[in-house]
UniProtKB/TrEMBL annotation:
Protein name, per record: MFS transporter
InterPro entries (UniProt xref): MFS_dom, MFS_sugar_transport-like, MFS_trans_sf, Sugar_transporter_CS
Gene3D superfamilies (alphabetical): MFS general substrate transporter like domains
Organism superkingdom: Bacteria
Keyword Glycoprotein tagged: no
A GO cellular-component term linked to this record: plasma membrane
Membrane protein topology class: Multi-pass membrane protein
Lineage of the species this protein comes from: Bacteria, Pseudomonadati, Pseudomonadota, Gammaproteobacteria, Enterobacterales
TM segment ranges: 25-49, 61-84, 96-114, 160-184, 196-215
Residues annotated as domain Major facilitator superfamily (MFS) profile: 23-230
Alphabetized GO MF terms: transmembrane transporter activity
Length: 230
């Protein structure tokens, strides 16, 4: 009877491989969302933000101001990496990775409904910069945390392969953001795109976030992290 029970249990190698696959898939899904949101901002900054949020200056200065707000995200990436890394070591990688997706998704969706300068004046660019800072903070925690969880969970001889999903997610996020913006711009007139069309890709982020959270909910902490807690 004991031998029957033992034979029906998943062996340790199978459980470890399952954990590794879930970690790799969760890291990939989160990377897609975070980089979709992060890069979508840059695409839209070049097309829309100079007119919607900086109309009080010349077109050239408005474009420079829009790209300056894009750069804010890069300034906050190191801070996000340090803080999320610190709490990831204490509270767990999974918790922090769930939080990065939430933060990125909420910030991106809020950009999608943010009133323009003509509606709320200087509050528009101020809020835009704030939301961009949150995006940068979130993606800073995402990159290192997702790669680390994938490496810690992967089999010893396949760590590079299982952690590659983070980098692949970057490419997929870039393709999704550019593809969706291109599709909407082709389906709308210039006036429609500037009025409301550009907001659709930002709001679509909600769908991606929910999907990524569902995938990441199935992840487990790595065995290495669990051992460190004991």
């Amino acid at each position: 009877m004991d031998s029957t029970l033992i034979s029906t249990r998943p062996d340790e190698g199978t459980l470890s491989l399952s954990r590794a696959r879930r970690a790799a898939l969760g890291s990939f899904a989160g990377a897609v969302v975070d980089w979709y949101d992060f890069l979508l901002y840059g695409i839209t900054a070049a097309l829309v933000f100079n007119r919607e949020f900086f109309p009080q200056v010349s077109p050239a200065m408005g474009t420079l101001a829009a790209f300056a707000t894009f750069g804010v995200g890069f300034l906050f990436r190191p801070l996000g990496g340090v803080i999320f890394g610190h709490f990831g070591d204490r509270l767990g990688r999974k918790r922090m990775l769930m939080l990065t997706v939430w933060m990125m998704g909420i910030a991106t969706a809020l950009i999608g409904i943010l009133p323009s300068f003509s509606t709320i004046g200087w509050w528009a660019p101020i809020l835009l910069v704030t939301l961009r800072a949150i995006q940068g903070f979130a993606v800073g925690g995402e990159w290192g945390g997702a790669a680390l969880l994938s490496v810690e969970s992967a089999p010893k001889n396949k760590k590079a392969f299982y952690s590659s999903g983070v980098q692949v997610g970057y490419g997929v996020g870039l393709l999704l953001s550019t593809g969706l913006v291109s599709l909407i711009s082709m389906m709308t007139t210039d006036e429609q795109f500037l009025s409301w069309g550009w907001r659709i890709p930002f709001l679509f982020s909600i769908v991606l976030v929910l999907g990524a959270l569902w995938v990441r909910n199935g992840m487990e902490e790595s065995a290495e992290f669990e051992q460190q807690q004991h």
